[in-house]
Design a protein that fits this description.
The protein contains 19 helices and nine strands. The protein is an alpha+beta fold. It folds into two domains: 140 residues, D-3-phosphoglycerate dehydrogenase, domain 3 (60s Ribosomal Protein L30, Chain: A, 2-Layer Sandwich); 277 residues, 2-methylcitrate dehydratase PrpD. Strands 5-2-6-7-8 form a five-stranded mixed sheet. Strands 1-9 form a two-stranded antiparallel sheet. The chain is globular, with a radius of gyration of 22 Å.
């Protein structure tokens, strides 16, 4: 089981796989080390980044994330401004205060190695930590994997999941099984997901998490629409969400409607989120940071542009979206380093499409149809970030993914749920397409736009 608590994580940008995951892995390594009787021996720590983490880790702030994790910071609680101050101090002072108060010499430029020559077999996003004694000899080593969406796993461990050791009452690993269970129980997808979640936690805690996630998503849109300036990283990409909002509001004040209706607002919402993500601010993985703008934009569309929207509807939206995201992670991937951007924007589009179809009165079959269209029409999308930054084309891709999600939901609601391509088939095709895709198109910045657009 993949819980909504796992799928929707509140963290910081710019990447769930390259920032959130490595920060969590570094924290987990140090926590294990601190429980070891040899912890007082620690005089230095080395980190080696492999595969996609090595290729685009600098642009995704992986070195900063690892350093923060070793110091005990967590992505869901760290203040972005404090994180930046700490990172500057660590680089300048070449010292690191470990979680628990111990201080050691640590130079990120020397002790974090970007090894682009090696990719480990399990996953392209791999990190190896080693603790050294005063003589410089390593005495404790661990390899971790960042699996996308902030999920991590230590070498030798299986896929992570919140329900380890707990059996959910209605297990499903396919959309076909999910729909069959819902028909048998005569319940909605949201209702069945909620029953599974209550096997892990009290219902009140689940409801609080859903409200917290929705509020975090909507607040992120508001912050992004208010912020100005140039995004970090060297590409000199200027934030544009605020200017877009001001032009739309000026037109509305003058009695004009947006030329393309509510879709202009939807694009604005998605761009606002992903500019916040690119700036390293607070976002929600949905299912990743690179695709974090799609679900919030469509959720905001539901709240602000759909008659009858409610807080209960927002919770239903997220529960249905989570079911689709879980199916994609279980049967394919939500990691661009593994399957390209179809696993991030494509999955986010499918999640948002299903959630919207459900809250607009669609049947379970119509929601599944909407999700299938969301995946199908992103198949083959590569991940080719210019400069290794989550900016070009990532920010605009979220806007297009959000608009596609609304279109998919609308088309599904006009049908009866019957369709030729099932969601399971679309997910399997995404998995196979990702397997066949050349590595240079999987978050390495070695192909596509990343090499055809000058990094200046």
């Amino acid at each position: 089981m993949i819980s909504i608590f796992d799928l929707f994580k509140i963290g910081i940008g710019p990447s769930s796989s390259h920032t959130v995951g490595p920060m969590k892995a570094a924290g987990a390594f140090l926590a294990g080390l601190a429980a070891d009787s040899r912890y007082p021996w620690v005089a230095g720590i080395g980190v080696r980044l492999y595969g996609s983490l090595a290729f685009t880790g600098r642009g995704h702030c992986t070195d900063k994330a690892v350093t923060l994790g070793l110091a005990g910071y967590a992505p869901d609680t760290v203040d972005p401004d404090e994180a930046e101050r700490f990172w500057q101090a660590a680089r300048e002072g070449r010292r690191l205060r470990l979680s628990g108060g111990r201080e050691i010499g640590f130079d990120p430029a020397r002790d974090i190695v970007f090894d682009a020559s090696t990719t480990l077999p399990r996953h392209s996003n791999a990190l190896r930590f080693s603790a050294r004694d005063p003589s410089g000899q390593p005495f404790a080593e661990e390899t971790w994997y960042s699996l996308g969406g902030g999920f991590i796993a230590r070498e030798g461990e299986g896929e992570p999941g919140a329900a380890a050791g707990c059996t959910e009452p209605f297990p499903f690993r396919s959309a076909e099984a999910l729909l069959a269970m819902c028909r048998e129980r005569r319940c909605s997808i949201a209702g069945l997901v909620l029953e599974n979640e209550t096997a892990l936690r009290p219902r009140a805690e689940i409801e609080r998490h859903l409200e917290r996630v929705a509020d975090a998503m909507l607040s992120c849109i508001d912050r992004g629409m208010a912020a100005e300036g140039v995004l970090p990283g060297g590409l000199a990409v200027r934030r544009r969400a605020r200017a877009l909002r001001e032009r739309l509001e000026a037109g509305a004040a003058g009695g004009a409607s947006p030329e393309h209706g509510a879709m202009e607002y939807v694009s604005l919402y998605a761009i606002a989120v992903n500019e916040e993500n690119a700036a390293g601010r607070r976002v929600v993985t949905a299912p990743t940071n690179g695709g974090a703008g799609v679900v919030p934009a469509v959720l905001r569309y539901y709240r602000d542009h759909c008659p009858g929207a409610s807080r209960e509807g927002q919770a239903t939206f997220l529960l249905v979206a989570a079911a689709i995201g879980a199916l994609c992670k279980m049967n394919a991937s939500i990691s661009a380093a593994e399957v390209g951007c179809q696993g991030e924007i494509g999955v986010a589009c499918a999640m948002a499409a299903a959630g919207l179809a459900a809250v607009l009165g669609g049947t379970n079959e119509q929601a599944e149809n909407a999700a299938e269209m969301g995946i199908e029409h992103h198949l083959g999308m590569t991940c080719d970030p210019v400069g290794g930054l989550v900016q070009i084309p990532c920010i605009e891709r979220n806007a297009f993914g959000a608009v596609k999600a609304i279109n998919a939901a609308a088309l599904a609601l006009r049908g009866d749920g019957e369709h030729h391509v099932s969601l399971d088939q679309a997910i399997a095709t995404m998995r196979d397409t990702g397997r066949d895709m050349q590595a240079k198109y999987k978050e390495t910045a070695l192909g596509g736009l990343a090499v055809n657009v000058p990094n200046c």
